[in-house]
Amino acid sequence: MTLEGGCDCRAVRYRMESAPLFVHCCHCRWCQRETGASFALNALIESERLTTLAERPELVDTPSQSGMGQKIARCRNCRIALWSHYAGAGPILSFVRVGTLDVPDELPPDIHIFTASKQPWVVIPPGMRAVPEYYDREKYWPAASLERRRAFLPRLEAYQAELKRGRS
Predict the structure, then answer these.
(1) Domain segments of the chain: what residues?
(2) Which of 103, 149, 109 is nearest to 127 (CA)?
(3) Rounded to an integer, what distance in angstroms lies between the CA atom of residue 27 and that of residue 54?
(4) Cross-strand bridge partners of residue 84
(5) What is the SS3 assignment for 67?
(6) Is the full-model pTM beyond 0.85?
(7) Would the pLDDT of 32 be above 70?
(8) What are phi and psi of 79, to 5 degrees?
(9) Gyration radius of the chain's alpha carbons
(10) Rounded to 5 degrees, what are φ and ψ at 148?
């Protein structure tokens, strides 16, 4: 599975070289404020599986609820947010904004998270996985995604150790 997307002015184009690990529909107030919408729909994928096809986006340092910040990849021209790198995973993982895909219908959410703060008029379909805050990855991720995570886990742990050393 490969999916392509990009910004409004088409200066930045990208390709997801495989299916994502998991797709979150996040209803936290931080995502609501950051996007100006009722939720954020993000496809989590290894950054090495995300190929830039045209101009590279600008990485903009942005505050986050964790206090550790995030880098949002934005088009330098039209300023559309294409994906994020959250501090905990840094450049190893990308959270692709599903709405920037050419065919966003291909990636419906696997789970709705932070539903305790969702807008009351947002109705989650019956049978859809939903949790009040975050979730247990081992419980919800498919086996193939957990296997992929095991492959990048040493790099992730090294990155997180470096973060801790930097804060000491």
Answers:
(1) 3-167
(2) 109
(3) 31
(4) 72, 95
(5) coil
(6) yes
(7) yes
(8) 70, 10
(9) 16
(10) -60, -40
Using the 8-state DSSP alphabet, how is residue 17 labeled?
-
pLDDT tens digits, residue range 114-123? Answer: 999 999 999 9
Copy the structure tokens of residue 158: 């090294």
Integer Cα distance of 115 and 124 in angstroms: 9
Fill in the DSSP letter of residue 120: T
Tens digits of residue pLDDT in 118-142: 999 999 999 999 999 999 999 999 9
The rounded mean pLDDT for the chain is 94
**Token pair of 68, please?**
């550790």
State whether residue 103 is helix, strand or coil. Answer: coil
Q: Please identify which residue in the block is written with the tokens 């065919």.
A: 103
Residue with tokens 């300023």: 79
Determine how β-strand 40-46 pairs with β-strand 93-97.
antiparallel
Helix (H, G, I), strand (E, B) or coil at 99: helix
How many whole angstroms separate alpha carbon 99 and alpha carbon 105?
9
pLDDT recorded at residue 168: 61
Q: Which fold has domain 3-167?
A: glutathione-dependent formaldehyde- activating enzyme (gfa) (3.90.1590)
Q: Is the pLDDT of residue 113 over 80?
A: yes
Task: State how far Cα 5 lies from the chain centre.
Answer: 14
Tokens of 43: 């496809």
Please state, as a whole number, how many other Cβ atoms lie within 10 Å of the Cβ of residue 89.
20
Alpha-carbon separation of residue 131 from 39, 110, 112 (angstroms): 14, 11, 6
